[in-house]
Design brief:
The chain is mainly alpha-helical. It has helices at residues 2-19, 39-47, 52-63, 67-83, 86-94, 99-115, 119-136, 142-153, 158-171, 176-185, 194-207, 217-228, 236-251, 261-273, 277-287, 293-296, 303-320, and strands spanning 31-32, 290-291. It has a domain at 204-322.
Length: 346
């Protein structure tokens, strides 16, 4: 009987694993941190040493108050400048008081400070640059998100952090990046606890605008709990509730949409840790070719390889639970994706 069960299990897996590939892009079509159609040309130009497209892109986001896009683009441009910064130095020389170049410089300086063994000292030196970026456009919440990340690295106390948080949300009450920065400060790995993370994330998600990625904030609290460990246990139902809420947020976006890609990648990781294999497979289909470094770079030095490895594992787990009569829907949610999207900063 044991042998028969093993044979049937192998048969199910052999048949169903190939069926479960439906709706998933081939390994060679999956890209890490692929830029969107607006950022891609700016990165191509930066690779040639030209800063004008990046300057135009950030100016557009500032003038039209596209704060979420502005934050993402500033982070990606700073990451690119980390290894190829000639274009940024030319931009700074041409217009040193441009609010947009100040923003990218501030983000880059904070990133460099975080990577240094002398983190606290280097980050403290960056403070005036962040304030210059904030003064560049008083409406802009993004310098205040940078200030929140900076504060976490310089051991700022709760009172001062709350003052920075007040400045940030006064400019944009539902800004996703600022909420993530606050959640990190409150994490058990820094100056709070797992309970404080959830107590912050859950009301923020309830108050968020429809379709806002802030609604998925509790799943980031779940990720922190599952990866950091230690401290009082978080009940399983609270973790599942966070995942369920993030699933509903994901469902509000089209499949293979690059905008919610990071949330979907994070959600897939949490669902795997919770052993919710079918739900995880659905998110992998919705991710399509858009893999993000986070969260996979937290668990592997090769985030793309880890993602592909996990994707195969999820398919095997789902396949092992399907009978030979089960049918897997032939879905291709990313079928609108044609060819490979060029990626310029990994």
């Amino acid at each position: 009987m044991a042998l028969l069960r093993a044979i049937l299990r192998t048969a199910r897996m052999a048949r169903n694993t190939s069926c479960l590939a439906a709706g998933l892009p081939a390994d060679e079509e999956v890209l890490l941190d692929a830029p969107d159609h607006r950022l891609g040309p700016a990165l191509v130009a930066a690779a040639r040493g030209e800063y004008a497209p990046a300057a135009e892109l950030l100016a557009t986001t500032r003038e039209s108050a596209q704060w979420e896009n502005r934050d993402r683009y500033a982070m990606r441009l700073a990451a690119f400048a980390r290894s190829r910064g000639e274009w940024l130095r030319e931009w700074q020389a041409a217009d040193p008081h441009d609010p947009d170049v100040l923003l990218v410089r501030a983000e880059l300086a904070v990133r460099r400070g975080w990577e240094s063994p002398a983190r606290v000292e280097l980050l403290r030196e960056v403070g005036p640059l962040i304030m210059s970026a904030a003064e560049g456009d008083p409406r802009d919440p993004v310098p205040w998100r940078i200030a929140l990340d900076h504060a976490r690295g310089t051991n700022v106390g709760h009172t001062e952090f709350e003052q920075l948080w007040t400045e940030a949300v006064r400019r944009s009450p539902h800004h996703y990046g600022c909420h993530v920065a606050a959640l990190q400060y409150l994490s058990a790995a820094w100056y709070g606890s797992h309970s404080e993370c959830f107590d912050f994330a859950e009301p923020a998600a309830q108050d968020a605008l429809a379709g806002s990625l802030v609604q998925a904030l509790p799943v980031r609290a779940a990720f922190a709990y599952l990866t950091e460990g230690g401290g009082p246990e978080v009940p399983r139902e609270r973790l599942d509730a966070a995942a369920d809420l993030a699933i509903s947020v994901s469902a509000a976006y089209a499949a293979a949409d690059p905008w919610p890609a990071e949330v979907r990648n994070l959600l897939a990781y949490v669902l795997v840790r919770l052993e919710r294999w079918q739900d995880a497979l659905e998110q992998l289909r919705l991710i399509g070719p858009y893999v993000t470094s986070f969260p996979w770079d937290r668990v592997s030095e090769d985030p793309l390889d880890r993602f592909l490895e996990l994707r195969d594992g999820v398919r095997m787990e789902v396949a092992s639970g399907l009978s030979l009569r089960d049918r897997v829907p032939d879905r291709h949610p990313w079928s609108g994706h044609r060819g490979r999207v060029p990626s310029f900063d990994h």
